Structures are given as C-alpha cells and as structure tokens.
Batch of 2 targets.
Target 1
Amino acid sequence: MNATWSRFNVTSIVLGFAFLYLPIVLLIVFSFNESKLVTVWGGFSTKWYVSLFHNQGLMDATWVTARVGVISATVATVLGTLAALTLTRYTRFRGRVLFSGMVFAPLVMPEVITGLSLLLLFVAVGLDRGFFTVTLAHITLTMCFVAVVVQSRLVSFDRSLEEAAMDLGATPAKTFFQITLPVILPAIVSGWMLAFTLSLDDLVIASFTSGPGATTLPMKIYSQVRLGVTPEINAACTILIAVVAVGVIIASIANKRREVQRQLDEQAAQRG
Amino acid sequence: MKSLGSIRRDFAPWNDPNAKPYIQFDNVTKKFGDFTAVNNLSLTIFEREFFALLGASGCGKSTLLRMLAGFEEPTAGRILLDGQDLRGIPPYRRPVNMMFQSYALFPHMTVENNIAFGLKQEGMPKPDIEKRVAEMLKLVKLEQFAKRKPHQLSGGQRQRVALARSVAKRPKVLLLDEPLGALDKKLREETQFELMDLQQELGLTFVVVTHDQEEAMTMADRIAIMDKGEVMQVATPAEVYEAPASRFVAHFVGNVNMFEGKVAERSANTTRITGASGAQIVVENGGAAAAANADIVFAIRPEKIKVSSKKPADAVNALEGEVYDVAYLGDMTVYHIRLDDGQIIRASALNAARVTEDPLTWNDRAWVSFRPDAGVVLAR
C-alpha cells in the first residue's frame, strides 16, 4: 500500500480502465439521453426506459432469454455435475481420457462450429427450430463449464466424509443427497450461475439454432442495431449490465462475509 | 506370582482355550493390483478387548481396518464377526463403526446433527435420538458446543465429536484409525487415558490402528505388530517389550542392544553364549532359539543394564569398556558405553535420587552388568 503514484503508473491505470470501460460508460450515459439521436447529447431523461417496457418485441425477447437461461442452466448443471462426479470418482474405466476430452471439447470449440453442427443435426432429425432447439444448444454449450467448476471442487472433496456416512448406516444414495450434495452445493450454484450467464449473452449459437417466435434478447438487440442504434437499445443493455453487476457483487459480498465469519469462528475455536 | 512387565492383567481371554473369538481374520489376503497389502493373515480378537494394530506406514494395518469396516473386500480368506461371515455385507449394514483419522465430520451439520446422523439412519424415534445425543455430548464433555459447526471447534473438540459420533450407535466394535494422530503431545497423552476409560465404561471392543508405539503400549490389551502385510507378533504390551518374538519386533518397540554370538553350552536352566569377540554371557531360559551351537542374538533393553565404575562383585555378566557418550534427561540418564571389542552399548539409569555418588563422565572406564534373566535369546 506504499506504492508511489508515479505519473507512469497513473497513466497506465487510466488508459487501461478507459480501454475496458469507456465504451460501457458511454453506453450507459447515452441511455439517459433525451435526444433521439444516439450520439448527440440532448439532456437527461429516463423516457427510453419507459418506452423500453412498452416495446413488445424487446419484452418478448427478454422473456424467451430468461426461460432459455433458467431451463438450460438447470439441465446443464445436472448433467455437468454427473459428468464431474464420473470423472473424479471412476478414474480407471475404459475410455476415460476420451470421455473427459469429449466433455471438455466444447470449451475450446469455436461457437460458429458448435452452432452450425447443431443446426445441421436439428435439420437432419427434422426438429423444428425454436425455443426447444435453442435450449438444447445452450445445454450443450454450458454443460462443460459446469463440469469444470464442479470437478475442481470434487478434487478437494474429502472422500472419508462419504465413508463416514456409509459407516454410520447411510446407503450410497442417502450419502450422496445428505452429505456429498450439500458439501459441493456452492460449486454447483456457481456452475449454474456461470451457465445462466453464458446462455444469457450467447448470440452466435442462438442465431444458428433459433427459429421464429424464439428470438433471444442478444439476437433482438443485434438485429435492431443493424437498423440503427436507438437509445432504447442502450437502455436495455444498461439494464442487462446492471443485472449482471448486481449478481456479481452479491456473490462476492456473500463470499467475503462467509470467509470473514469462518476466520472469526476459527479464531474463537482456538481460544476455546 | 511373577509376570512380565509391571501390570497384572486379569482380563486375558486369549489365554483361555474356551474363550470364543469375537473377530476372526482367517487367512486374509488383500491385493491392490500387483501390490499385496495384507498377506495370508490370521488374527483373533476377543470381546471387550482393546486391540492395537501397530506398524510403520504401508504395513497393511489400515487395510485390515478398512476390510473390517467394509470399505475393502479381502481378495482371499474370510473375516468373521461374532460368528458371522462379513463377506459381501456393505459398510452401511455392518455392526461396526469407525473413527476416521481426519475425523470426517460433516462440515454442514452442527455437532448434535453429526452425532445424530447414524441414529437417524437407523430410524430411531426422535425423542430417543435426542436423549442419546445428550448422553453422548455429556460423555465427551461437549454439552455447550451442541449447536456449533465443526469449523467452530478446536482440534481436540473435533476429535471428541468424531468419537461421540462413532460410539453413538453402540456398535459391536469401534474401529479407530490413528485416533490421536492430529493432536499435540500433551493432549494426546490425556486422551489416551480417556479412551481407555471410555472403553471400560461402554464395554465395547476397540480395534485401533496406530504407528505410535507408546500409544499402543498405553492403551491396548494386546498389540499386533505388523510388517509388510504380515503379523510379526500378537501379545500384551509387556510381552512385546520384554519377550519380543524376533529381531524385528525387538527393534521396532523401544530401544534394544543386540549381542551376536553362538550357544556354547546349555544346561537345564542356563545357556552360555560366546560373543563374537570371545566374551562369555550366561543367560536364563534360552528358549527354542538356543539350540546347541546355534548362531543367535541376545537382545537386552537399555534399562536392564547397570553401569558402574568398578566391576560389581556379584555380577554374573559383566563387560568392560569406556564411556563414549552420556546424556542427562532429568528422569533418567542415558549412557553409551564402548566395550573393549568396539560394540557400543546403550544403558539407561533411572535417577531415583537427586544426588549421585561416584558419577561418570566422558572417557571414564566403566563396567556394564546385567542379570541372567534380563534379556532374550533370538534366532539370527
């Protein structure tokens, strides 16, 4: 904390943060613009937020995005958790390397390819593109992220907890639901949040796999921007940013509090 | 009446040919791939016994315990508990409970819920569970910590919770895997006696795994010394110490001096041994190892050897040398005497008096002497 604020340091920090956040700040500022022209400041106003809620197209897209996000994140969390359990528990089955490679491949797969191949599949099996197909595609996309998050928790999980539960008379199923699941729950919740966020801001895969009547918010915003940016879109994006920021802040505050509480508890325990 | 060691043991079902074994390992072998963790091992443990499995890490003692708990199945052989073959019975249906080395307390549950966990699995009625949990908390003196979570407890308190949880179901056998390994020395010594009292109070059979010989000696009725998946000796602490069955056991438990030699002469009660340098030793009851002309070792504990500046007039066995090293430890003094043939003998003397007459120092000439019944003859 005794770093001297040299001119060089200040400059690099200002430039760095400007590079990261100037566009976003600009977007937020212009969402409160009175003028209809996006780039000309015409005074402060919240009228675009009001008109946003009367824009049926945007509201529909928001509703679709929320449903796709919740359903796909939930299914992906179940599947990803199961994959993580298999990968950490059964270390010696045939084809484990192949299996883990296949689980994690979508992490590095270009989204265009994932989207295109899913589109080809849906066409081949004759699935009508729409809400269902976007949700399926998002499950495919986000499952591996959940698996990574949950697996990293499971690696440090003390297996003797499960042995102790079984030793005390709990069947393997009861052991899983009463011991394993509650202990790894924080990791599963972060996995779910990650999956939800990924689904929320996906544009590429949704464009490939969605159909009429199932336009997600990013798709809607993108298509409107092509017709010219309206202050309404700025307002929609600002709300999106606010939602994500509030989520992140709540999560980190909860985390910090838990950590502080744990440290206090441990100090108290040491004192007896 | 004479006996080995300084404790009279009235509880000794292992000496009673009619006693019914409670836990029986019959030619049990356990392999992990190519590695043999337990090799054709047979062992009998009696009801209400405090039994210790003692050995270095990797000797198979933990595997033995895990087979009893049901986490591993023997590759060959069988394990009987109270006459019932345990093969194929999963851990959650075995009438044994285990206290884990890491304690394995459930981090998301309070102390009382940890203790109640096993009782809930049994489907015990709620009022009975509450009563039993209160009883257990009292037993381990943690009444005021019932609502705490494990991370809010000190190491010693966690150990007590783990203990209470594992005895709450009144198992037929309690298995303890290095139960005191994580405690500091002082707490460990206190807890050793508490565990013994607890075992008496509950009347349970305890099987404890430990690598700490002092812990095993303090607590156990009998100790099985293990090495490389096999049992080297099963005996009371006094027998293990005073009458080790082999060089390995003699070395493993406590300190020991070994004289290599040959049996020169055997009579009804005594055996005369000629050492490598020609020194003569007379010992009582040579045992089976002491056949005529056999190559043997004579093992003798440091505290059985007397050190003096002059040759004791009445000593049967006395060897001359010089003081090589000496250490004053408070309760006792440890001498390293280099005999004239070059061998270094470790001897220790209890400092029963505050004032020592005629004390020794480095490089003094000194005599070591011992009684004919002070050591044992072992095969080489």
Target 2
Amino acid sequence: MKRVYAKEELCLNCRLCEVYCKTAHSASKDVLKANKYETPAPVSRVTVYGDKLRSAAVNCRHCENPKCVQACITGAMTKDPATGIVAVDEHKCIGCMTCLAVCPYGCITTGRFAIKCDLCRGETEPACVKNCPNRALVYTDLGGAQE
Amino acid sequence: MKYIIIGACAAGLACAEQIRKEDASGEITVFTKEAYLPYSRPSISYLLKGAVKEKDMYLRKPSYYAAKRIHFVRDTAITAIDTKNKTVKAGRKAYAYDKLCICTGSKPFVPPMKHVEGKSNVFCFLDLASAKAVKAAAKPHTRAVVIGAGLIGMKAAEGLSKICQSVDVVELAPRILPSILDQKSSKLVKNHVEKEGHIRFHLAQTVSEARSKGERISSVVLNSGEVLACDMLVIAVGVRPETALAEAAGLSVNRGILTDSKTMQTSQKDVYAAGDCTVSTDMLDGSKKIIALYPNAVYQGTVAGAQMAGGSQELGGCYAVNAIDFYGLRICTCGLINAAGEPYRDKVRHSGEAYKRLIFEDNRLVGFVLINASQNAGIYTNLIENQSDITALEQDIFDTPSLFMFDKAQREKRLKGAL
C-alpha cells in the first residue's frame, strides 16, 4: 500500500506538515481558522520530533499487522482490508488509549477518542506530503527504502 | 474440519478469525451463553455512564460473520466436554469437534458476606446483561455501594457517580487500584476521583453484613462498624478464571487452565485454551500468572486459532499492558508494576497530576506507570517487549519517548518500516 515516509535528512523542522494536517482535519478547512480560532481545536496527526539539527515528521505506519488494532478493546480501530488504512471509528472508540499504549511508533494522540493519521482518506496525496516545502515527506507504495 | 470455540469474547473472536485466515473451508462454531454477538466487555462502564451506545459496542457487524462463515450459537451454555468422543454438550445436545478452544474467560469472585445472597438489589458488573441491569436500577436518588476498588469496581463507581445521588466504594486493600498503582500514584488518583466524582472511599475495610427490608438490602455494615445506607450493592471484588468445564473434563488446571507456552494446547490433544481462563507465563520475570487483560486474550486467541488450523504462529512473550481513564485522568501501565527490591529499581518523576514511574531490571525497562503522562507510551512498551538495552538510548528515558530515542540506524529502520 501507499504510505508516507519521512526523510530525516531533508526535514527542516518547520512543522508545516502539522499545520496542514490540522487544516485538513478541521471543520473550516481554512488554514488560519483551523490553526488559530477553531474550537475544538483540530489536532495534528503527524508530529515532528527532533531538534533543529535533525528532525523527522512521524506518522502512522499503517502496519500490516497493527498492534493498535489487535489491542483495541472496542473494535473501533480497524485496518481496511481494501485500502490498508488503519482508522478509528469515533462512535465506537471510548478513548481508553490502549492503542496508544502499544503503538511502537508513538503515532496515536489522546482526545475524547484516539486520534491518528487516516492518510486523508482517499485523497491522492495526504495534506502533510502535499505541503511539505522540502519534499521531506513522500507518499509511495515502493516502500521506505526507495529514494 | 470442525472447530468449536466456547466463549465469544476477545479470545474467542480472535481465535475464530485466525482459524478462518488459515482454513477457508472449515466449519467454525462459537458457543456463547450470552444473548449477544461479540461485544466490548470493557465498554460496559461507558454504556452505564452514557458515553457509548449499545449498538456501538459490538466488535464486528453481523454481515462480517456471515461473510467469514463464523457461526454463533447464542444463549447456549456448554455444560460438558467429552474429550474421548470429541464432543461438547449443551444440556442433552452434543456437538462434535475436531479442534476445540476454551475461551470461557473470568467469573466474578464474591466474598463471603452475611445476608447478601438472593437480594434483589445486588449486582455484579462484568458483562452486558449485568451492566444493563445496573443501568436500569440506578436512579438519581440511588445511594450506591460498590465493593472493590479494582479496575472493574472503579469503572462501575465512575459510571454510577454520573447517575446516582451518592457512591461509596469499599476496598479491602489500603489503597485504590492496588493491582496497578503504587501508594503514591494511588493517592493521586484517589484525590482526583474524590474531587471529580464525589465518591467516598472506605479503604482497608470489608462489608461484613447487609441489612435488609424484605427483598432489598437497605444498608451495609463495614467491619469497622460503620453503617452505609445502600439502595444498590455492586460486587466487583475481582475475577477468577472460569475453569469449571476444563476441570470437569480432566484438563490440567492450576488456578487457570494450563496450556503449552507456544501452542496454547491444553493437557489434552486437540483442546486449546486462550484468554482470561488460562495461566500465562509473564515473559518479563518468567512467573506464572493470570493476565486477565484484553490484548493478551486477543494474542492468545490468535495463536490458538492458528495452531488449531495447522498454522505455524507460536506464542511469543506475554506481558500485561493496560490503559484506563477516570474522569479524564489517564492511567497507562505495563509490565512488572509491582516489582520491588533486588534486582529491580524504579524511578519516579512527579509534578502536579502528571506522574511517571519507570521500573528497571539491570539495563532493561520492565514496567511503567504513567498518569497523565502517557504520550507515546507504546514506545516504552516496545522497549519492554524487545527487552532493549536502555543504555543505548540517545535521550533521557524520562523525556517524552520518540523515535529520536534511538540511534540513526534504528531510527531509519523504524521510519521506513511498518510492522
């Protein structure tokens, strides 16, 4: 499946991926409103870790055998057999955060329910990738080893 | 091939699904004594407090089971297992199996108390039926008493506190959530729950007897002599593995059903067991224990299913991992949280309502207790599961864990991989 891969050597730690992730997952879809004024404030599903010298935007790997899906106590976290996308059903999720407790990549955020990357659900290119100014994020089905 | 699974909760469902992955044509029948298709047991307290609807508690859609040809027989308690003739019995009816998996889970433990049995306002809180009964009985004027301040009792108390006039919790141990929290963190959670939920705790106490008016309990007497008014008594002292069927069938049982540590097969060929009814080996200290937690049940059920259908997947290590919240306070625990003394050491960082306790053995992380500090906790869990050398980490282990804890090679591998 197509996944988002981060290139540490190209990441500028500008956090625009977070800004545009929030926008894509906001009610207004407006970059200013989403990041400044909207309540509840939209949450970014991608997080830049590291410092000015070395950083990378980390988001869900959409694993083949996702630990979060296996551990989910409500059946809210599922992997779509057709698209491979691992996503949360917000009605079923009780926000216990067992998924967060087992995700080895640290890609689940706490909220009233678990919040995570949904690959912008069928968009040709997720917002984080589309808006990365230095092409430090790539969206490909070639696997992480590609250049 | 005929597969029979007894029990339709976490382990039973995982077992059935794995069998279907390995064997496209076998006949899969799941017996449940409950009236429902598989649903989320842990969600019952969220149903009680009105945070989730019953229709959203079901783990899969009915159409899914039809597509996977997983057949459920509901409202049917298996009464006996005949390993010689390879049948299970439900009353007089017998069903033949080639491979059987016992996923009978837990049963509530009810401590001896005088004048409680048979009263109409006494409840357990374990399954959907009991949660519905509690929800129907809990009214705004109800004065509820919960016995047990473990995970189930505390979730019951939280749910009841949103409905009832008052909630009293009686706990034998000197602190709440004794199985997952140490003294300091327990106190922190207790303060939060008292403030947010107005729950009154009676610690290091037991209910010695109940007083009744007719069929209903009207008050309970603690061993201190204190009397608590009581319109509803919820017994949530704890659970024990449900092993009656296995014992009667002559399988090896020691507290829980004993299984092969790799295949989940019981002492009897072609009979497997998974989930809360079994004894697990904790990979972190080698001890035999009951790990009555959801992820463990799913894992064991999956392995049992694979083995039953001729697959190769074997059980790796089991360990405890749990996440729960009380009035917005998030608690996340993993591994050997009660380990004390040599060879273990622990370190605590505590500020305000954020609490982080990490437990180490030599240069390995073997457990954690995180309260309002659970960000990226899965990375800690991963360190525990992989028994990683933490001296090789590139940042302070108390900092928020991230991939930048690992050296460049490790980090690249993780950024480019997917499990």
